[in-house]
Amino acid sequence: MNITSYDVVNPATEEIVDTVALADVADTDAAVARARRAFQSWRKVAPADRGRLLRRFAEVVDAHVEELARLEVRNAGHTIGNARWEAGNVRDVLTYYSAAPERLFGRQIPVAGGVDLTFHEPLGVVGVIVPWNFPMPIAGWAFAPALAAGNTVVLKPAELTPLTAMRLAQLALEAGLPEDVFTVLPGKGSVVGQRLVEHPDVRKIVFTGSTQVGKGVMAGCADRVKRVTLELGGKSANVVFADADLEKAAASAPSAVFDNAGQDCCARSRILVQRSVYDRFLELLEPAVTGFRVEDPSLDTAQMGPLISRGQWDRVRAYVPDDAPVAFRGSAPDGPGFWFPPTVLAPVDPKAPAVTEEIFGPVVAVVPFADEDDAVRMANEGEYGLSGSIWTRDLGRALRVSRGIEAGNLSVNSNSSVRYSTPFGGFKQSGLGRELGPDALHSFTDEKNVFIATEE
Ligand code: NAD
């Protein structure tokens, strides 16, 4: 094996946590070949047994939640509270889809001269390409339904954050999943990722990452008419109307954008506030931001940790030049680590890059709007359409604005976007296809129609 390696760095201390060997194209081809062989037997495992194995995998993950969470704190700088949720989410998604093999129903369609049946057939080897911001959940959203539907999986974690995915692959074997059914292959995007996209025996790609790389992945998949799900960037709006519970909207706005240090595709990084309550909202927002606890992410009290890398720090810093209109900001530790304080920009030119581009850091712009139409128009500006929030006490308005905003995941009087039992994905250039929920399974199958003649 042609080994090159990668030093995994703890973003809170800048210390090296581990050194990981990176796979090359030959390793990728070998992994795909093994996964293809494993597919022949995995697809034939009886539905109840496949479900049982996935439930056992979930139980083993559950028994290792604390270990996985601590590993993610070291590797990604996530707060321990978040990391526990993330490991628990892998368990929950596995449990949710463990019921699927026995419920993967086809249909019997009335036709003349015979019986018509449909089957949802697994695709084969599924390639999963994961970003660094939520290494565990994003992996689980793809591999759990893919395995449940009878596919085998080769997963490439992000270079920066391979450790929890590698551990999950070990736990899968411990739970009794057969060899090569679920393979984790650390490597570079331009090498392993690209090879998975190009490889003729990889029948589907699930890609989560930037819109720019996602477009290339989609083009690569087009060459082979390869199925593809894309979960891409976002620039979501948190829309606060004058009739809302302003205290609640302001108190929860910081975690809606600063959670995971803003490195969240659903981050509500634009707060649009009705002009008549704009000043009042900022007054309420300030203590919530300055009180946001940015500290050693292994502490139970931490609400935010560091950014993932020096490169990401530089990128975020570029959106907050020395003359940026900073209204107020929180604090961050000194010393080693890629720390960036929660930062609120206001008033800010609505055309400024900080308002229009995905920053992927703890920076939020607060922009006033006039009325409902204005709010919807502003929320829909730009190429993204992933998530967003609407704060109002008027039910009719909540529904009108929810229908008006072009985004896949909206919440009213709440900022939560993700539930494993409901569909998740983007409008416009935020993505293609949906993960999670009752229907995601079908994106890992092709429908087959079989007609059986009954005429003599
Ligand atoms: P990225 O696009 O740089 O990388 C994502 C993954 O793609 C990594 O594993 C990388 O190695 C791989 N990759 C890079 N080049 C490739 C190539 N040519 N072929 C195949 N794979 C390649 O993204 P990132 O910086 O790791 O993650 C941040 C981005 O992900 C943000 O834009 C964020 O919004 C997005 N994201 C979206 C969702 C969602 O569900 N919509 C969730 C999380 C993150």
From TrEMBL:
Keywords: Oxidoreductase. One of its GO terms (molecular function) is oxidoreductase activity, acting on the aldehyde or oxo group of donors, NAD or NADP as acceptor. The active site is at E231. PANTHER family: ALDEHYDE DEHYDROGENASE-RELATED. The keyword ATP-binding does not apply. Residues 5-450 form the Aldehyde dehydrogenase domain. It comes from uncultured Blastococcus sp. This is Aldehyde dehydrogenase in hypothetical Actinobacterial gene cluster. The keyword Iron-sulfur does not apply. PROSITE patterns: ALDEHYDE_DEHYDR_CYS (PS00070), ALDEHYDE_DEHYDR_GLU (PS00687). InterPro entries: Ald_DH/histidinol_DH, Ald_DH_C, Ald_DH_CS_CYS, Ald_DH_CS_GLU, Ald_DH_N, Aldehyde_DH_dom. Belongs to the aldehyde dehydrogenase family. Pfam families: Aldedh.
